[in-house]
C-alpha cells in the first residue's frame, strides 16, 4: 500500500433543496443518523427531535464485520446554522463531527466536517482502539470518513428533496 498523508480534518458539502431549518432538524435528530450514515447503524439515549447542546448519546457503528460504539455529547446546536458533537471511546477523545448550514437560493449548502482529536499522549491509545474496532488504519481514517460524508450527504439530500 502506498503511503498516505494523514489529515486531521476533512469536510464535504452538498446543496439541498430545503430550508436551513428543515435540514438542521433532520441532522440534529441524531436518532435518524443510521438512515443517513453508511457507518452509524443506530443512536440510543437521546429523546426524539433535535438534540440540544449538552445532550449525550451513544452511537453504534458498523464497517464490514467490525461493530463498535462511541459516547457522544452535543457541543453546538444552533437551529438552521450549526450542529456538532464530540465523540469519545472509553473516555478518550476521538473526534468532533459537525454540520454547517448556509442558505443559498432555493435551499441550503450543508457542510459536514470532521476533526480527529486522537492526538497527544493518550491519542495513541485511541488510535489503537480505533484500528482494532473499525479495521481502519489511523492514517487512512480521514479517507474513510470523507467517503462516508459523501454518502451521508447524498442520502440526506435525497430524503429531503423527495
Short overview:
The protein starts with 8 loop residues before the first strand and ends with a helix. The model has no long low-confidence stretch (mean pLDDT 88).
- What portion of the residues fall into strands of 2 or more residues? 35-45%
Given this structure, which CATH class is correct?
Answer: Alpha Beta
CATH names the topology as Alpha-D-Glucose-1,6-Bisphosphate, Chain A, domain 4
Q: Please, what is the CATH homologous superfamily?
A: START domain
End-to-end separation in angstroms reads 41 Å
- How many beta-strand elements? 7
Work out the helicity level. Answer: 25-40%
Low-confidence stretches: none
* Overall radius of gyration: 15 Å
Give the tally of structural domains.
1
Find the structural class using helix and strand composition. alpha+beta
- CATH-derived architecture: 2-Layer Sandwich
Largest sheet: 7 strands, antiparallel
- Taken from the alpha-carbon principal axes, the silhouette is globular
Pfam families: Polyketide_cyc2
Protein name: SRPBCC family protein
InterPro entries: Polyketide_cyclase/dehydratase, START-like_dom_sf
Topology at a glance:
Blueprint (H helix, E strand, L loop, with lengths): L8 E8 L3 H9 L4 H4 L3 E5 L11 E8 L2 E13 L3 E8 L2 E13 L2 E10 L3 H15 L6 H21 L1
Antiparallel strand pairs: 1-7, 2-3, 3-4, 4-5, 5-6, 6-7
